[in-house]
């Protein structure tokens, strides 16, 4: 099921305009989008409209898909490519939105060659060359450091040059060795923090799921980069600098600019 607006969008050769009231309601509900400058919001809107025209949204799990849901996902998902361009989301079409968390069948082969099958509860999933899956219930938690939409779209960027391993396609001015070294150091440090927290009542500053592997670390820290940039900058300044180089954005400066307005 699709909203009336989105059905109209996809039957035009050129992206149509998302109505002002709908766009403003989406932006105002998400602090990290409200913090964008006027020119940034304008460019994000154009990217989101182009994204909506290119991709196909499908509802699952008894969700009634609305224009507001699709525009919200498009706006959040296009934030990472604000300075990169829509071509970074090439090679896939589908966005499947579930009402809540969903089950994904998994299989893993152990060291003896035995395949173990199991089911995993997920709030999001990005498939290489395939659709992107999102739990709308989880997507509505955006704004306080947890952002399943940015997380899964970051995986899509990571997959542009192979399996999700925390190394997206870097621009020519960035050095792979530097990125790898900074990422590995931050990842090792965070894993140590997660291990330390496991034996106490304390919690880590970032989602401990980031310790699963470097690919998940990149996705979780991308959430932090856009939602809680000053925290990421404080804890891992070198990693923040690398992310700023890749995404070509400085979200921390937006936080300071917003503070100056108040």
UniProtKB/TrEMBL annotation:
Q: One GO CC annotation, please?
A: cytosol
Q: Which SUPFAM superfamilies match?
A: Metalloproteases ('zincins'), catalytic domain (SSF55486)
**Entry GO MF terms:** aminopeptidase activity; metallopeptidase activity
Name the UniProt record assigns to this protein: Mlc titration factor A
Q: Which PANTHER family match?
A: MTFA PEPTIDASE, PROTEIN MTFA
Lineage of producing organism:
Bacteria, Pseudomonadati, Pseudomonadota, Betaproteobacteria, Candidatus Accumulibacter
Domain of life assignment: Bacteria
Q: What is a single Pfam family found in this protein's UniProt entry?
A: Peptidase_M90
What organism does the UniProt record list as the source? Candidatus Accumulibacter phosphatis
Coiled-coil stretches, from where to where? none
